[in-house]
Amino acid sequence: MFKRPKQVNYRKQAKLGIPKSYVQPLLRYGQWGRYATEYGRVTARQLEAARRVIRFRMSRQGKLWIPRFPHRPYTAKPTEVRMGGGAGSVKFWGQMVKPGSMRFELGGVSEAISVSACHAASKKLGIRTRRIQRVSLVKLENE
């Protein structure tokens, strides 16, 4: 599912540092979600592995949202190549991760399924994540 973008303005981007800021975790689409708790980098392969694990655990029920696309190219030069000569070829595509940014959201499944699916998928990402649940207003009014 996650390949390179269809069209980009610049094939190679500068390697920028992650701006040190925090994003408030916010569920936009689903009932349950998983958000990052640390800075890092997530590759398209990691996201695809996490997506496949979630879909397997959900067994064709509910819906899955992955809010951000891995749009950033990362370059690397081959081994045993001398310094200079510009940036190497694009090695993989990924995205920068800030604490609080949503990794994926789930809806239309039970809590037990969402817990197991999100936990299994978070092991594929390479960064620490935490689970979040949407607070139901009907539930609060009845209490």
Give a verbal description of the structure.
With 143 residues, the chain is an alpha+beta fold. The chain has a single domain, classed as Aldehyde Oxidoreductase, domain 3, CATH 3.90.1170.10. Helices cover 25% and strands 26% of the residues. It contains three helices and seven strands, in the order E-E-H-E-E-E-E-H-E-H. It has a four-stranded antiparallel beta sheet with strand order 3-6-1-7, covered by helices on one side. A three-stranded antiparallel beta sheet has the order 2-5-4. It is elongated, with a radius of gyration of 18 Å.
Key words describing this protein structure:
143 residues, alpha+beta, Aldehyde Oxidoreductase, domain 3, four-stranded antiparallel β-sheet, three-stranded antiparallel β-sheet, 3 helices, elongated
Order of helices and strands: EEHEEEEHEH
Summarize the biggest pleated sheet: 4 strands, antiparallel
Question: What is the spatial order of strands in the main beta sheet?
Answer: 3-6-1-7
Question: What is the CATH T-level topology?
Answer: Aldehyde Oxidoreductase, domain 3
Task: Please give the alpha-carbon distance between the first and last residues.
Answer: 43 Å
Give average pLDDT, whole number.
86
Uncertain runs:
none
